[in-house]
Amino acid sequence: MKKAAILFFFLALSTSACGILPRAAPTVQPTSTLPVLPPIAQTAPAIAPLATWTPVIASPVPPVPANASLLSEMLEAYSESPAYTILLESVVMEGDAVYADPFNSQVHLLMEREQKNFIEGLNEIEEWRAANMPDIRSTLDAAHQVTLNDHSLVSVRFEFYSFTAGAAHPVSYSKTLTYNLASGDVVLLPDLFTLGTDWLGALSSYCLRDLQERGVLEFPEGAGPTMGNYASWTLTPEGLVVYFDPYQVAAYAAGPQQVLVPYAVMSEFIAPQGVLSFVQP
After folding, report:
1. Residue by residue, what is the 3-state secondary structure of the chain?
2. Cα–Cα distances in angstroms (integers) from residue 205 to residues 79, 133, 198, 242, 280, in the given order
3. What integer is the mean pLDDT of 199-221?
4. Strands 83-94 and 138-150, bridge-based pairing
5. 56 confidence band (pLDDT: 50, 70, 90)
6. Residue 57 predicted with pLDDT over 70
7. How far apart are CA 91 and CA 134, in angstroms?
8. Nearest CA to 280 among 262, 259, 268, 256?
9. pLDDT digits over 147-176, tens only?
């Protein structure tokens, strides 16, 4: 009986031991296959080389000439209808284009404007002229005078002579140009004087007195202190010259008039840093 009990004990212990042993984990099969990625490139991308830089070297600007090389040039035009002949003596500057070209352009514009105005006036009377005086031609002539070519300043007077078919007599008038080579600008009359001063009144007073003393003043209003009366002027070594066309201050028979105004007369009005500071004695 004792042996049977012991045998039963060992059998129960063996059965219990077999119940607590760990089971092996089941094998999991993959449900899908991941794509194989290509390896990342380790080489840096090529960079295009920079364009070669070439420094720009500016051409040296030629020095401003103290005086210009000026030549005469003849401009001619001819037409049958309207009937006219144009013969103009102009001026052209030679030398460095930096300075010559702008000056020549200003002269060209002046000449072109006078020709245009002349021809437009003839168009208005051409029908009458052709019917009444077919053999008479209108004419426009011009001559020039350089009054100053120094201190990088060029001052020129152009005197025009215009005759229109059917007119009693020809008409003369002046156009002027004063040019600063250093600045490349046309010099205007107010540029010569200090802003805010009565330079125009002083200029008018001197001209009126000069014309009166010479006995050629018939129309004082033509030399009054207005800019229109002093549109034609040039510079000279001695002073400022003002030009008055026929009928402006005197009758046609008296001819055009001009007044030389010494720089000393206008000294208190001259701009200290203006162009006259280099011209006046």
Report:
1. CHHHHHHHHHHHHHHHHHHCCCCCCCCCCCCCCCCCCCCCCCCCCCCCCCCCCCCCCCCCCCCCCCCCEEEEEEEEEEEECCEEEEEEEEEEEECCHHHHHHHHHHHHHHHHHHHHHHHHHHHHHHHHHHHHCCCCCEEEEEEEEEEEEECCEEEEEEEEEEECCCCCCCEEEEEEEEEECCCCEECCHHHHECCCCCHHHHHHHHHHHHHHHCCCCCCHHHHCCCHHHHCCEEECCCEEEEEECCCCCCCHHHCCEEEEEEHHHHCCCECCCCCHHHHCC
2. 45, 46, 11, 13, 20
3. 98
4. parallel
5. very low
6. no
7. 34
8. 262
9. 999 989 999 999 999 999 999 999 999 999
User: What mean pLDDT, rounded, does the chain reach?
Assistant: 85
Predicted confidence band at 230 (pLDDT cuts at 50, 70, 90)? Answer: very high
What CA–CA distances, in Å, run from 68 to 48, 72, 172, 216, 218?
Answer: 54, 13, 28, 36, 39
Instruction: Assess whether pLDDT exceeds 90 at residue 64.
Output: no
